[in-house]
Structure formats: structure tokens, C-alpha cells
What we know:
This protein is an alpha+beta fold and 177 residues long. The chain has helices spanning 3-22, 28-35, 39-51, 86-92, 95-102, 128-141, 168-176, and strands at 70-78, 106-112, 119-125, 146-153, 159-160, 163-164. The strands form two sheets. A four-stranded antiparallel sheet has the order 2-3-1-4, with helices on one face. Strands 5-6 form a two-stranded antiparallel sheet. It is globular. The relative contact order is 0.12.
Amino acid sequence: xxxxxxxxxxxxxxxxxxxxxxxxxxxxxxxxxxxxxxxxxxxxxxxxxxxxxxxxxxxxxxxxxxxxxxxxxxxxxxxxxxxxxxxxxxxxxxxxxxxxxxxxxxxxxxxxxxxxxxxxxxxxxxxxxxxxxxxxxxxxxxxxxxxxxxxxxxxxxxxxxxxxxxxxxxxxxxxxx
Length: 177
């Protein structure tokens, strides 16, 4: 395949990805129209992006207050562990999710970091008490591998997943108090 063809394919994929990031709920026709493609071309690009795992999935952005939940971030600093350690394997196999499910916690993200902390877990809990319980259970179940951890509560979400909070005008009043 010619270099210019690969570049064009990549450019077309980027246009479709941008359209999906702005509205993943749009119809194939809507995405095609926004990108200037036929419906068939848009559909083929989306299927290829899904098959190559460029697109992992789709989700709705919801109002956490209306779902009766609060957002939390848990930062973890871990012991220096050898490569291919048991802790990494437990995390990849879903140990954190299993512990969360028992506590009625919803994990949104688990991210390895470079910096002061090694990992960040973004999750939702009914209240701060439940979040602290999960934090303690996690520290206990990670077999002493946690050197330091910080539990942070999300107070006001201004922008999430690329979307501005539609209720930000009300939240601005909270920030000024």
C-alpha cells in the first residue's frame, strides 16, 4: 500500500474517532455526514477501529449526583517490586474489581503512573464512608505492598470525558463560597 494511502486511511480514522468522541451515540448516518463519508465507509472504518482495539468501547457520561454516588481518586505508592510480580498479575486478573464489587464500588479507571505515585484508581461510591472502607480493604488485600496512599474526593466536576458539566453554572456558586 502506498504511503499516501496509509496517510489518508489514518486521517479518515481520525475524523471518525473525533466524531465518536463528540457523540458516541450518533447514528452511522450522522457520523458519515459529519465526516463527509458515505454510510458504508463510516461503518467500515468504525468496524476496523473496533477490530484493531483502537476503540475499546462506548459509555454514557452520567450525572453522579442523580445516580446517588460520589467520585473518588485513590493514589497508591507501591513498594519497588520485581518485574512480573504477583501484585501486577492480581490487578490484571481483576482482584481490585472483585474487592470493589463486594463493597458496591464501581471502578471507572485503573492507571499506572510515572511520578510520585505508581497507580491511580478512579471509582464511585455511595459516600465517603464506603470509599474509606474500600481504601482500607484494598490496603489490607495488597499484602503490605502499599507504601503510601491518598484518597481524594471529587468535589466539582467541570469537564469529564471531554464534556463540560451541563450544570456548571450551579456549581460556580459552590466554588465562590
